[in-house]
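User: Let's play a game. I give you a shape written as tokens, and you guess the letters that built it. Ready? Here's round one.
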């Protein structure tokens, strides 16, 4: 019991120490940025390229909430659609060897296409801006969901699958009672990865034709040569990502509360 208790104590200490170290690191980074901003002329950098935190705070105060809400809605909507399509395709590939053999190479091909190519395809193929953005996000995130879920399904123990089939379950019971609980940790991890990816991709997609969203505002800031606005919108993007990840972590802690 003593080693376990000691290990638990060390884990608690590490959990308490990490936020303090993170805060210190961020404070040091902020101090270095402010110092460089105040001495930009001395080190040969144009002052406009290194705005101080007072100027960045002014930019943050002038940001529009509607653009943040639009970007978040696009990301969440596209991820939900990507996940549903990936579930359907993964189940089909898992149940049929022929479907997997013919479909999986196409999935790998889609994953090899660069994001910029999907954006160009969307611009050339579609007129509606929202459809363009949704298409790019689904094309990028959908294959990742599919590959992760298919690998997780195949990773379920054969003994467990054979035991479950001995009870003659329906297809819904087989996937609901065995496969879903078994692959749930991997699915949640896949959500976290795709969330981070979608946040980066949506800003690029919004640069092309969109008149709302964080990506559009970044484009406007670039046209106005406003580094402070670019920095402010970047901080908002990071904050949105952390907030959505916190929501996923709460969901993970609830649905996987049975884990030690």
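Assistant: Ready! My guess for every position:
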């Amino acid at each position: 019991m003593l080693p376990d208790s000691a290990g638990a104590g060390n884990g608690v200490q590490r959990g308490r120490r990490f936020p303090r170290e993170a805060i210190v690191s961020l404070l040091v980074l902020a101090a270095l940025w402010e110092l460089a901003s105040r001495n930009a002329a001395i080190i040969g950098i144009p002052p406009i390229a290194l705005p101080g935190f007072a100027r960045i705070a002014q930019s943050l105060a002038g940001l529009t909430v509607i653009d943040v809400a639009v970007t978040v809605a696009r990301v969440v909507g596209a991820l939900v659609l990507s996940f549903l399509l990936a579930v359907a395709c993964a189940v089909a590939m898992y149940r049929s060897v022929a479907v997997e053999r013919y479909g999986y190479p196409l999935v790998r091909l889609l994953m090899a296409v660069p994001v910029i190519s999907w954006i160009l395809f969307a611009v050339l193929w579609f007129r509606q801006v929202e459809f363009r953005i949704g298409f790019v996000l689904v094309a990028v995130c959908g294959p990742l969901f599919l590959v992760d879920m298919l690998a997780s399904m195949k990773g379920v123990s054969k003994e467990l699958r054979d035991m479950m089939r001995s009870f003659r379950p329906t297809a819904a019971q087989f996937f609901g009672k065995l496969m879903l609980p078994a692959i749930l940790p991997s699915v949640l991890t896949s959500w976290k990865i795709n969330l981070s990816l979608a946040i980066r991709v949506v800003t690029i997609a919004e640069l092309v034709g969109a008149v709302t969203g964080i990506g559009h505002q970044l484009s406007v800031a670039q046209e106005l040569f406003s580094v402070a606005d670019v920095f402010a919108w970047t901080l908002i993007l990071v904050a949105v990502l952390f907030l959505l990840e916190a929501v996923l972590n709460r969901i993970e802690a609830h649905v996987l509360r049975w884990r030690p």
